Amino acid sequence: MLFKGICKEHLANWANAQMQAEKDVARWVDVVGVDPARAGDVALFRVLEWGWMEVLV
């Protein structure tokens, strides 16, 4: 995941993103199509990594 921060003066342009950010994150299970039981099965995955980087300019 790669993202860039947003200046306060540009936040008004991101109203839809702000509405999405306020929703319950559990909805991503359905959006992405994750099977929580399989995702939690340690026999299926040796490594599951989630990382991010912020680019400051």
Largest sheet: 2 strands, parallel
Given the helix and strand composition, which structural class is it? alpha+beta
Count the helices. How many? 3
Estimate the mean pLDDT confidence. 80
Please state how the strands of the largest beta sheet are arranged side by side.
1-2
Distance from N terminus to C terminus (CA atoms, Å) equals 17 Å
Strand percentage, roughly?
A: 5-15%
Q: Outline, from the CA principal axes?
A: elongated
Radius of gyration: 16 Å
Summed up, the domain count is 1
* Helix proportion range: 25-40%
Low-confidence stretches: none
Number of strands: 2
Order of helices and strands: EHHHE
Descriptive labels:
alpha+beta, two-stranded parallel ribbon, 57 residues, 28% helix, elongated
Q: Mind explaining what this structure looks like?
A:
The protein has 57 residues and is α+β, with helices and mostly antiparallel strands. It has one domain. The chain contains 3 helices and 2 strands, in the order βαααβ. A two-stranded parallel ribbon has the order 1-2. It starts with a strand and ends with a strand.
